Amino acid sequence: MCERPLFDDTPDVARAVAAHAAEVWRMLDHPMARLFIAGPEHLLPQVEKAMTEVAGSASAWAQKRAELREGGRWQEVLY
User: Fold this and answer.
1) Are 18 and 50 contacting, i.e. CB atoms less than 8 angstroms apart?
2) Among candidates 71, 59, 57, which has minimal Cα distance to 28?
3) What is the DSSP letter of 5?
4) Phi, psi of 11 (to 5 degrees)
5) 6-24 pLDDT, tens digit each
6) Which distant-in-sequence residues (6+ apart) come within 8 Å of 78 by Cβ?
7) In this predicted structure, what is the pLDDT of residue 3?
8) What sign does the dihedral 26-79-44-75 (CA atoms) show?
9) How many CB atoms lie within 10 A of CB 60?
10) Alpha helices, DSSP H only, in 1-79?
């Protein structure tokens, strides 16, 4: 059976990112990488938590997030 959540289920962002943590971080280090975050605004804290864990610390994630934003490589569409 498929392990994907039902359409109405809240996505488990942290689990999805953690499952591919090394790949996510490696991709974000690439100078051509862009991060697009889209979805309900209430999921943003899950994204922040997951990315903090991937980065290894809150300060490492804050630095990477700032780098992405300053380079125009961070986009959000939240509703």
Assistant:
1) yes
2) 71
3) P
4) -65, 145
5) 566 656 777 888 888 999 9
6) 37, 38, 39, 40, 41, 44
7) 64
8) positive
9) 14
10) 13-19, 21-29, 44-55, 58-70
The amino acid occupying position 28 is: L
Phi, then psi, of 61 in degrees rounded to 5:
-70, -40
User: Rounded to an integer, what distance in angstroms lies between the CA atom of residue 36 and that of residue 54?
Assistant: 17
pLDDT at 34 over 90: yes
**Identity of residue 53:** E
pTM: 0.76
Exposed / middle / buried, residue 54 (Cβ in 10 Å: 0-12, 13-18, 19+) = buried
Q: How many residues would you count in the chain?
A: 79
